[in-house]
Amino acid sequence: MKLVILAACVQTVAAFSGNYLSQLNGGNTANVASANGAFGVNGGSVASAPAPEQVMATNQNGPSQEMLDLISKQVSVELMASQAYMSASIWFRSRNMDGMAAWMLDESDEERGHGKEILEFAMKNHYPVQLEALALPRSEWQTPDEVWETILSLEQQNTKNLLAIAHAADKCGQYGVKAFLDPFHVEQIEAEDKVGGILAKVRGASINLLWELDYMLGKEAEEEDHH
């Protein structure tokens, strides 16, 4: 008796389900059968998922020539920035502004270090690097604020260069390159803020204030050397 009741319940549920699905499809039972087949119901075959290597091949792009060229060029750009800072250091040193000279020299070392970091990253990823001839940096200025204006322009241009690399990497899906550049972007924000602040103080500063600033930058460079 229980078996008869259970069988009747199953038939009732099946009939209700069929009618409900038929209504959802506008009364077209062919759509229901098609849907059942697509999901492997009533003998339909289940579509196989693509292999992992197929997904990677679809989503992974190779580095573009634009990105490779920009990375290669940036190595030389960082070396040129190092020379520019060193030239500024020489100018200040020759005018007995040893604090600013020391600060510029530290920045020169840092820029050279950036060039080495980018070169190492390129080599590890088998990116071609062609060093360019380094243009002679500017060496003559009339006033200290002219020197700082040159350095600020240098940092602003370097920011644009690094953003161009990140943009090129984004276009070809090289997100590892973008991640590598993140610390450089942070440093550029800090560098522009620092140099811009110094320039604002140097402009129109009295001789006493200028020497005080020179002393402060010298102490800052000294502390940096001890780290």
UniProtKB/TrEMBL annotation:
GO terms for biological process: intracellular iron ion homeostasis; iron ion transport. Pfam families: Ferritin (PF00210). GO terms for cellular component: cytoplasm. Residues 1-15 form the signal peptide. One of its GO terms (molecular function) is ferrous iron binding. It catalyses: 4 Fe(2+) + O2 + 4 H(+) = 4 Fe(3+) + 2 H2O. The keyword Metal-binding applies. InterPro entries: Ferritin, Ferritin-like, Ferritin-like_diiron, Ferritin-like_SF, Ferritin_DPS_dom, Ferritin_prok. The keyword Zinc does not apply. Fe cation binds at E78, E111, H114, E155, Q188. Stores iron in a soluble, non-toxic, readily available form. Important for iron homeostasis. Iron is taken up in the ferrous form and deposited as ferric hydroxides after oxidation. Belongs to the ferritin family. This is Ferritin. The lineage of its organism: Eukaryota, Sar, Stramenopiles, Ochrophyta, Bacillariophyta.
